[in-house]
Amino acid sequence: MSGYTRYVALGDSQTEGLWDGDDSSGLAGFADRLAAILDAQRPGLEYANLAVRGRRIADVKHDQLPRALAMAPDVVTLCIGMNDVTRPGNSFDRALGDLDEVYVSLARSGATVVTTTFPDIAQILPIGRVLAARVRRINSVIRDASSRHGFRLVDLFGAPSMREPDTWSIDRVHGSPKGHALFAAAAAEALALPGSSHDWAHSGADVAWPSWRTRLTSQALWTRNMLMPYLWWHLRGQAVGDDRGPRRPELQRVRPEPA
């Protein structure tokens, strides 16, 4: 039977599944959704999710990557870098170098690798235009590595669906449940899974776009409730996931074997 048998997801809060469920009821996220799709194609898939909120590229390089390679996965998803894009300071160049090293190691593993560009955050975040140059730089690194190593690329940057307000949670950084479903569908297309298509990228006809007054109010609330606490954490040298580990640290079957 064709298909994948061992899937490992690497990354930060997006891959952990924030805003698709919660810590009390349980998180899902695009990686869990993709694992379910893969398991439906070939039952018996084993899946590990090593992603942790707040993690940066260096964390993947030094912690998640060695653990993932030890599991000998045949498919890997990697979505990492937004915490490096948004982090103040001059460490971004080093982060891009680390990212390229991660890609080289994944390419040598023989696994099928799915990676993704970042969306046009100037269309999403109130401060997105400030970060636009960094997004373009990291997207260029991601595209170049994907081409060089033969990775499966999910290109979110130009997708109309990524500009829709309901694709994103209230913090405008993490996907909403709809957004995570779109991310999973995009990865399925990148893997050329049966039944997949490019529909995930298209804008919905019934999207409700907020007025300029609503957007202005929303941006003010976002700055107060989301941006300022985030900057405060960084000024104190902390990250939101400092006290957390991965929620699925070992390979486990997506669906337990029948008794």
UniProtKB/TrEMBL annotation:
GO molecular function: hydrolase activity
Domain SGNH hydrolase-type esterase positions: 9-182
InterPro entries, per the entry: GDSL_Rv0518-like, SGNH_hydro, SGNH_hydro_sf
Gene3D superfamilies: SGNH hydrolase (3.40.50.1110)
CDD domains: SGNH_hydrolase_like_1
Signal sequence, renumbered to the chain: none
Record-given protein name: SGNH/GDSL hydrolase family protein
Alphabetized PANTHER family for the sequence: GDSL-LIKE LIPASE/ACYLHYDROLASE, PUTATIVE (AFU_ORTHOLOGUE AFUA_2G00820)-RELATED, GDSL-LIKE LIPASE_ACYLHYDROLASE, PUTATIVE (AFU_ORTHOLOGUE AFUA_2G00820)-RELATED
Alphabetically ordered keywords of this record: Hydrolase
